[in-house]
Amino acid sequence: MKRGAAMLLAACLAVIVTGCGYHEAGHNNKLPTELHTLAVPVFVNTSQTYRIEQDLTAAVVREFITRTRYHVVSREDRSADATLRGTVLYAAVGPLTLDSRTGRVATVLVQVGIKATLTDKDGKVLYDNPSYVFREQYQISSSPSSFFQEQSPAMARLSRDFAGALVSDVLETY
Question: Where does 29-173 sit in CATH, by number?
């Protein structure tokens, strides 16, 4: 009986010690080890939304700087080991809900489609996702006295969410 209990305890400890596959985000970098410098030029904007490409690019650069040890340059750089290029394919803003009392728009949905490709200096594709889609919603104040323009903060949240997802995908999917 004691021997069976000891073996069961040993098996349980082995499972606990080996874990369940959990790892911290950003520490599972599967990119080639010879990459040290990343260029992230301003994304191309094919949408009609003003400056969206700048917000998305800045968020991606910040995310790479805070989560990795790469030297990140926010421009085209031929000496970089790899270059991440992005294209804003579309940005759409539309009503999501209406105020039942006034019939006016109460909540707005922003949807952005983005393409991202990471290539090394020889042109080899290290990562490619042609169809990122990110959404963010925000409420519109019904009172003119408390009006606050929420679209810019919503775009900032969307940019941060996209940057976090992109950097995770690039580091862990390669």
Answer: 3.40.50.10610
